[in-house]
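Structure tokens please, single chain.
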Amino acid sequence: MLHLPLFRRLLRYAGIVVLSWIALSWFVVLVLRFVPPWTSAVMMERRLSALAHGEKDFQLRQHWVPWSRISPWVPIAMVAGEDQKFPFHHGFDFDSIENAIDAADDGKRLRGASTISQQTAKNLFLWNGRSFVRKGLEAYFTVLLELTWPKQRILEVYMNIAQLGDGIYGVGAASEMFFHTAPAQLGPAQAARLAAVLPNPDRFHVDRPSAYVQERARWIEQQVSQLGGPAYLQSRQLPRDARPARRR
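Here you go.
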């Protein structure tokens, strides 16, 4: 049994470690509000996987493109396809979480309920997986992002680090690889096709779209139109007669 002074000392050390980690993680988040991320945890994980499996031809493609040099159709397509409540929630879409839980309870296919803020936190700082520890850290970093970054910055980083193909991350590399054009020149259909593969970029392909990807891209274009196009991301209040559609 620990002596009380020793227990207090250990408790104090543990408190210092926890507070130091919180301060360091928040400092990193604060810096990345202004400095483009040089990599992400998901990209590093993919590099290590390629090394471990001896993928000698693997090449990771990603480069930073600022918001001003990205077609306005790209962010609205990603919001329409992934998280239509993004401009208005504070990091978590509790309605989608509840719907996903109800669907799972009914024996239906498990639907993702992660917001763009959560996906940005996971891609930037964490590893792939479904453990409770990872989900807890994802929630922690999501709160930090929402408290520290404006919505535009969250979406800007998301567009630059999201996986859009094997070894292809961010709209800059994807637009050049798949459409042979600059991200500023992407049109509504091209932006929708990029957004259409986001649920599973290892399975779905921008350059070889399956029937599902083509159908989903058309659906995203319809949602973009119903939301009001790029202006939706500048609005501060949802139109009374327009509600975000369920994700497909």
